[in-house]
């Protein structure tokens, strides 16, 4: 079903698919002249700032059944792509098992933005603030595409973000559950620096996750960074300096230097790349200092 009249007051036609398959078929047919929309917070910002053209058609995903819940089982948490950021923040399952993600959504925008914006929209932007938290959890993305349901590691998708691919509809984000057998609870941290206090876009975002095993050594260590226009990515060299060490063996200077070298930052009118790299390095080093019991 379509509502609205294309060209009326310059507004796009709004298409309301009955299911995800119909949404995908419309996108495949209309191509670049149509855009998926749910909360629409990012799209509206892009249009208002002239960063993206307004499409001729919007494919409204809000009414699609089955993509607005958070389901937790022993081996995973599945977050529907249409779950709002506010609902992610209020989820007891995420607070318990993915506190870095809970913190990430807590500091995105104003409450009005979180009430409308969805986690799926933040993910498909390719640079959303939730990305570092997803990467440290080895998240997987569930899509509907030309072969039906498709599962893909989030890290693989974001690495090639921006390259041409077939139309897909993001349906869910999955966080595999990690067993705490053979070690203590996981340490998680999420840090964000903005241009100013309040609801400003991020300059740098980082997330960390690891745990101490029975011998007191850090294992399953993950560090990821993003923010601004930076491509979110795991920082493998910095992870290697953390993994397998006791807290006493951590070399914070080496970790700082590794993050500063590995984090891929870009300059813009608000902050240059050097400032962003130093900020990311400082955030990671400070979080690990805290995790080691020295903060």
Structure description:
This protein has helices at 20-30, 41-48, 85-90, 92-97, 99-106, 111-116, 119-124, 131-135, 154-159, 236-242, 252-262, 273-291; strands spanning 2-3, 13-15, 34-37, 57-60, 70-72, 76-80, 140-145, 148-153, 169-176, 183-194, 202-213, 218-226, 233-234. It is α+β, with helices and mostly antiparallel strands and 295 residues long. It has three domains: 2-60, Uridine Diphospho-n-acetylenolpyruvylglucosamine Reductase, domain 2 (2-Layer Sandwich), CATH 3.30.43; 70-176, Uridine Diphospho-n-acetylenolpyruvylglucosamine Reductase, domain 3 (2-Layer Sandwich); 186-291, Enolase-like, domain 1 (2-Layer Sandwich), CATH 3.30.390.50. The strands form three sheets. The chain has a five-stranded antiparallel β-sheet with strand order 5-6-9-7-8. A four-stranded mixed β-sheet has the order 1-2-4-3, with helices on one face. Helix 10 packs antiparallel against helix 11 and helix 11 runs antiparallel to helix 12. The termini are far apart.
Distance between the termini: 57 Å
Q: What is the tally of helical segments?
A: 12
Gyration radius, rounded? 20 Å
Q: Beta-strand level of the residues, as a percent range?
A: 25-35%
Q: Tell me the number of strands.
A: 13
Structural class: alpha+beta
Please state the average pLDDT score.
Answer: 89
Query: Which CATH architecture of the largest domain?
Result: 2-Layer Sandwich
Order of helices and strands: EEHEHEEEHHHHHHEEHEEEEEHHH
CATH third-tier fold name of the largest domain: Uridine Diphospho-n-acetylenolpyruvylglucosamine Reductase, domain 3
Shape: globular
Strand ordering within the main sheet:
5-6-9-7-8
What is the helix fraction of residues, given as a range? 25-40%
CATH C-level of the largest domain: Alpha Beta
Uncertain runs are: 1-8
Structural domains: how many: 3
Summarize the main sheet. Answer: 5 strands, antiparallel
């Amino acid at each position: 079903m379509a509502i609205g009249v294309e060209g009326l007051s310059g507004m796009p036609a709004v298409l309301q698919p009955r299911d995800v398959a119909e949404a995908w078929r419309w996108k495949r047919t209309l191509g670049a002249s149509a855009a998926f929309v749910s909360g629409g917070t990012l799209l509206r910002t892009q249009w208002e700032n002239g960063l993206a053209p307004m499409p001729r058609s919007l494919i409204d995903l809000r009414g699609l059944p089955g993509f607005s819940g958070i389901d937790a089982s022993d081996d995973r948490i599945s977050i529907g792509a249409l779950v709002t950021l506010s609902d992610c923040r209020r989820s007891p399952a995420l607070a318990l098992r993915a506190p870095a993600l809970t913190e990430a959504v807590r500091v995105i925008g104003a409450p009005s933005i979180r009430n409308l914006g969805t986690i799926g929209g933040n993910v498909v932007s390719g640079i959303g603030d939730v990305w570092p938290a997803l990467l440290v959890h080895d998240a997987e993305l569930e899509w509907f595409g030309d072969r039906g349901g498709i599962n893909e590691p989030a890290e693989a998708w974001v690495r090639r973000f921006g390259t041409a691919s077939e139309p897909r509809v993001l349906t869910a984000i999955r966080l595999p559950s990690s067993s705490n057998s053979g070690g203590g609870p996981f340490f998680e941290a999420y840090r964000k620096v903005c241009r100013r206090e309040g609801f400003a876009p991020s300059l740098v975002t980082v997330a960390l996750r690891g745990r101490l095993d029975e011998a007191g050594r850090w294992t399953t260590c993950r560090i990821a960074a993003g923010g601004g226009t930076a491509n979110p990515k795991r920082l493998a060299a910095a992870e290697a300096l953390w993994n397998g060490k006791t807290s006493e063996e951590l070399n914070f200077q080496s970790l700082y230097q590794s993050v500063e070298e590995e984090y891929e930052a870009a300059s813009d009118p608000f902050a240059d790349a050097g400032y962003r790299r130093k900020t990311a390095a400082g955030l990671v080093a400070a979080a690990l200092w805290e995790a080691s019991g020295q903060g």
